[in-house]
Amino acid sequence: MEDLPTKSIALLVNDETQVVSASSGDELPVLVAKAGPSAQFAWEEFIYGKIRNPHTRDAYGRAVRQFLKHCDGLGRQLPNVSPRDVGDYLDSLDYAPATKKLHLAALRHFFDTLVTRHVVVLNPAASVRGERLQVVEGKTPEITIQQARKLLRSINVSSAVGYRDRAIIAILIYTAARVGAIAKLRRRDFVDAGEQYCLRFNEKGGKQREIPVRHDLQQYIAEYMRVAGLSNASDKTPLFRTTIRRTKQLTDKAMSANDMSRMVKRRIRDAGLPNRLSPHSFRVATITDLLSQGVSLEEVQQLAGHADPRTTRLYDRRQRKVTRNIVERISV
């Protein structure tokens, strides 16, 4: 087995040897530490090299750590992990089928990396069958057109914060963009394309999309920029900024996706709308509304930025309305 160079520090924590990566500062799982430098290199390659999306990195990292801790409790070493270990572990998880599929996907990717680095001979997760899962409709609750209008009207624009929040929610409604993409917007991403303004989004998976801005949304963004003093700001300036506690004064720091999600939930609550609604609810409403108007699935798919039309269909709530109409006719 070839030893690949890696920098690590061995520590004794709770009577167990933990190897801490010098480059990342994160503790390596015990089984990875015991397997030697090649396994340690494969771990960092898997977590920090192959997975670029931070959310996927966190989810896959948790899944693999949990499985390796389980195997360590069974007295297994990495080269001795078998398909039965993987199958029994998945059967023991009290998770939804979708979550189990995520865990299996993480294990398959991780052990693929171990095979490549000659830590194990075969991938024990490769032959394990996941639970059959067919999703016809997504679980994200839909906000109705009337509720979305009520929410926009409820926002007090007596301060820059009000203008900011109204602009963010309007972008969610009128572009079907994800809150993470909106959080990445810079001053330069609000572009005058000649005949109309556009927003340039950097979305997950490295996708870049340019979506035209309708006239009322253009007005909301322009008014916010004027009140916030961003009209002549640097192109690299964050478009949507945080506030200094409750002072309603904007800082130079960009809002994160979590900041925006909390703001939307607070505005939803203040407007007296159901608490189950979330920023993603606007995406459902926009897609359903356009499909209800006869806009083609391909055009709606392009607006939503989905690679597969089946993903777009998960946001379509038209069938739910038909089903409800049918069950209401039951004579019992």
From TrEMBL:
The keyword DNA-binding applies. Residues 138-328 form the Tyr recombinase domain. SUPFAM superfamilies: DNA breaking-rejoining enzymes. GO terms for molecular function: DNA binding. It comes from the Bacteria. One of its GO terms (biological process) is DNA integration. Residues 37-115 form the Core-binding (CB) domain. InterPro entries: CB, DNA_brk_join_enz, Integrase-like_cat_sf, Integrase_catalytic, Integrase_recombinase_N, Integrase_SAM-like_N, Tyrosine_recombinase_XerCD. The keyword DNA-binding applies. Keywords: DNA integration, DNA recombination, DNA-binding. Gene3D superfamilies: 1.10.150.130, Intergrase catalytic core. Pfam families: Phage_int_SAM_1, Phage_integrase. This is Tyrosine recombinase XerC. The lineage of its organism: Bacteria, Pseudomonadati, Planctomycetota, Planctomycetia, Pirellulales.
